[in-house]
Structures are given as structure tokens and as C-alpha cells.
Amino acid sequence: MKNVTDSFVSLGHWPSAGSFGFNTDILATNPINLSVVLGVLIFFGKGVLNDLLDNRKQRILNTIRNSEELRGGAIEQLEKARARLRKVEIEAEQFRANGYSEIEQERLNLINSTYKTLEQLENYKNETIHFEQQRAINQVRQRVFQQALQGALGTLNSCLNNELHLRTISANIGMFGAMKEITD
């Protein structure tokens, strides 16, 4: 403090040469100049600086508020997405389980259907074999009967003469006539 008051006192001791001069004593003039400049800056710049700081503070608070709102929305969306993911995973597991059971059921149905088809084919085969056997037996019977008939006719033709032949025909006609009377 003493230096500051000394510098004011020393103003009175300056030599007056009738002109304006510079004080080259740096230690005496700098604190005075700095105090004047700082006083002017504080007096005039205080309002502007307060306004700038208030504006900056409001922008920072708005940015923080907006980021909190965005963070809250993001957390909400994340929870919704997680819930949807859990739901989809449960549905996928159900589809997978149902798919496996349906595949197993279809496999069993296919096996049963194949067994039934094979059984039907076996039955058709057996029926066809039986039918073919019956047809072959009937064909053999017909041939045997034809051969026996031809042999009997050949024997009858060689053994029968006309008189015996006429008597046999008359006897057969008589038998047919008696049969007709019985049926009527």
C-alpha cells in the first residue's frame, strides 16, 4: 500500500517542464494502469460477463436436460426391445418344440401309412396269387374235363353202334321227361 500512495505523492514532485512526459518508472506506473484498466473492465464488463455466463449456464442446463430425456427414452426403448426379444425367444422355443413334435408325429404317421400300404400290397399280392391259383386250377380242370370228355366220346363212339346209340338217347330223353314232370 505504501508503494501506491508513494506513487500518488510523487506526482506532486514531478518537474513541470511545461510539457507532458512519460514516467519511465515501471514499478510506479504499472500497478496504477492495471488498477484503472481492471476497474473499467469490472465496471463496464460485469453485466456483459454475467449475461454471457448466464447464457452459457442455460445452454449447459438445457443440454443436460435434453440428454437426460434422451437417455430416459433410450432406456425405455431398450427395455421394450429386451421384452420383445424375450417374447420372440419364447415363441421361437415354442415353435421349435412344436416343430419337433410335429415332425415326430409326421414321421410316425408316415411309418404307419407305409406299414398299412405294405400290408395292403401284401394282401393284394396274396389275393392275386390265390386268384391266379384258382384260375390255373380251373383251366387245368377244364382241360382235364375236355380230355376226359373227348376220351369218353371216343370210347362211346367206338363202342356204341347205332342201335345202342338210339337206346341211350331214348333213355336220356325219358329221364329228362321224368325230371320235368317232377319239377312241375
From TrEMBL:
Keywords, in A-Z order: ATP synthesis, CF(0), Chloroplast, Coiled coil, Hydrogen ion transport, Ion transport, Membrane, Plastid, Thylakoid, Transmembrane, Transmembrane helix, Transport
CDD domains referenced in this protein's UniProt entry, alphabetically: ATP-synt_Fo_b
GO molecular function terms attached to this record: proton-transporting ATP synthase activity, rotational mechanism
CC terms in the record's Gene Ontology section: chloroplast thylakoid membrane; proton-transporting ATP synthase complex
UniProt subcellular location: Membrane; Plastid, Chloroplast thylakoid membrane
Primary residence: membrane
Coiled coil: 71-98
Transmembrane segments: 32-49
UniProt membrane topology term: Single-pass membrane protein
The protein's role, per its UniProt record: F(1)F(0) ATP synthase produces ATP from ADP in the presence of a proton or sodium gradient. F-type ATPases consist of two structural domains, F(1) containing the extramembraneous catalytic core and F(0) containing the membrane proton channel, linked together by a central stalk and a peripheral stalk. During catalysis, ATP synthesis in the catalytic domain of F(1) is coupled via a rotary mechanism of the central stalk subunits to proton translocation. Component of the F(0) channel, it forms part of the peripheral stalk, linking F(1) to F(0).
Quaternary structure note: F-type ATPases have 2 components, F(1) - the catalytic core - and F(0) - the membrane proton channel. F(1) has five subunits: alpha(3), beta(3), gamma(1), delta(1), epsilon(1). F(0) has four main subunits: a(1), b(1), b'(1) and c(10-14). The alpha and beta chains form an alternating ring which encloses part of the gamma chain. F(1) is attached to F(0) by a central stalk formed by the gamma and epsilon chains, while a peripheral stalk is formed by the delta, b and b' chains.
Miscellaneous comment text of the record: In plastids the F-type ATPase is also known as CF(1)CF(0).
UniProt similarity note: Belongs to the ATPase B chain family.
Protein name per its UniProtKB record: ATP synthase subunit b, chloroplastic
Biological source species: Duabanga grandiflora
The encoding gene: atpF
